Amino acid sequence: MKPLWAVALMLAVTGTQATPVYKCTDANGKLTFSQQPCEGEAGTEVIEVKHTTHGVDFVAEGDFSKVEAENTARASSRQRDKSIAIRQRNLSILRNERDAKIARLRAEQNNTRNNAAGAAYHGSLATEIQTITQDYRSRIQAEEDAIARLREQY
Q1: How many angstroms separate the CA atoms of 94 and 139, rounded?
Q2: 93 with 101: CB under 8 angstroms?
């Protein structure tokens, strides 16, 4: 049983290798990855890649500037989509809060109509409903404007 462990350990140790990969950026900003050091004036960054390929080399060479730009654009787009979704959820919450507060005040108004003393209170409830409506109108408009600005970025 012990020799089996020793063989497994040797295979694990010999199968893991560190291969240097050179990340090169030329004067025009063109990004390339290679097993060879960068030529000329290019900025060089050495990246150690550990892999367990057991002798088979997988190295990507070429210009990855376009891929990097596409990945950045996709990440930015996902972030905008997430921001829009959050703001739309905020809009829904604001509208629900507004509607619940106004419904509660209107129910109170209906109860005050039954007597003369309630007339003054009825007027103050109407003022409160107006205040809530204006407050939520500006908050909702701010969220809608933010969503419109995010959508303009597409």
Answers
A1: 8
A2: no
- The region, left, alpha or beta by phi > 0 then psi within -120 to 50, assigned to residue 73 is alpha
Q: How many angstroms separate the CA atoms of 57 and 60, rounded?
A: 10
Instruction: Say what the pTM is.
Output: 0.53
- Model confidence pLDDT, tens digit, residues 86-123: 999 999 999 999 999 999 999 888 877 666 667 778 88
CA–CA separation, 150 and 140 (whole Å): 15
DSSP state at residue 115: S
Length of the chain (residues) = 154
Integer CA distances (angstroms), 13 to 7, 19, 59, 130, in order:
10, 15, 21, 75
* Structure token pair of residue 3: 């020799």
